[in-house]
Amino acid sequence: MGERWPVIDTHFHIGVNGITTFIAEEEIIPWMAEAGTDIQVVFQLNEGFMHRTPDWNPYIGNDYVGKIQRMFPDHTIGLGTVNPYQQAPKTYCWPNKREGQPWDRLPRRNEALEEVERIILDLDLWGLKMHPFLHGYPINFGPLIFPMMDLLVQLQKKVNRQLMLGIHAGGDHIFNSPEAVGDLAGRYPDLLVIMYHAGFLWGGFTVDEQCGARPNVLLDLTTCPQKSGVIGTYKRFGASKFSVGTDGPFVGLHMRTSIVEDLTSDPEEQALILGGNLAQRLGLPKMRSDG
Question: Torsion-angle region of residue 161: left (phi > 0), alpha (psi -120 to 50) or beta?
Fold first, then answer.
């Protein structure tokens, strides 16, 4: 018996809404078996922005992600989704005449920070999935994002394990450009940033300097078929800077393998990209293999 790195699919949407009916309780394990995946990273559908699972739809929300992780603890890693706008301001903002003075009235609760804490401590999830483009916020906008990141760093120390920050970063908007992602990653070097889609398409040619050079960033090749955007980072840093997912259930299983094989033909490098790099960052061991 030998050993091998687990195959980790970094990018999978679970749940039921108007465009998909992926019931993870029944479908996630068969999907993984067909894809040859050992560990599946799961999160809410992009179109969902639900903190708690509502009675009218048991297949959405952070509680649903937590449920699936509890059902399959050895095979799933759950990421939560949080609405950054659900925060009370610390001070009055312009043009109010009390600009800069401490905020002293309702609202006082900060539901965004409450949910970040609940995701990690109560649901035992591994971090956050953020979609700046679809949900409408700059990923490096200080008043909204930095308090969440500060708390995530604190919680990481409390649970004593590496937490993930998975960011939709297709370079399809200034909100999630390589420059914005790189800025955030540089401010929070203790967090593991998974740069989903690796800047494909429009941000691809600034990925190397802005994100590839950041030690805490993995360029995630999920649905990133344009090799030219990441080849600079590969030549400079090698295969250790990459991870990959299927973008399931919306993309065919062959896409992940094709993207990795297009970047490198070396089997050891492919094993790192397909899961070894992320496993090492998260402290996950190699698996027994019959060869």
Answer: beta
Nearest CA among 10, 16, 75, 12 for reference residue 43: 12
> Which of these, 168, 82, 184, lies nearest to 123 by C-alpha position?
82
Tell me the residue range of the domain where 118 lies: 9-280
* Cβ(192)–Cβ(281) below 8 Å: yes
For residue 291, name the pLDDT band (cuts at 50, 70, 90): low
Is the residue at 82 inside a domain?
A: yes
pLDDT band at 141, cuts 50/70/90? very high
Mean pLDDT of 229-252: 95
CATH classification of the domain holding 184 = 3.20.20.140
Name residue 6's amino acid: P
Per the domain annotation, does 290 fall within a domain?
no
How far is residue 242 from each of residues 39, 101, 213, 260, 277, measured CA to CA in Å? Answer: 16, 45, 12, 9, 7
Residue pair 245/9 in contact by the 8 Å Cβ criterion: yes
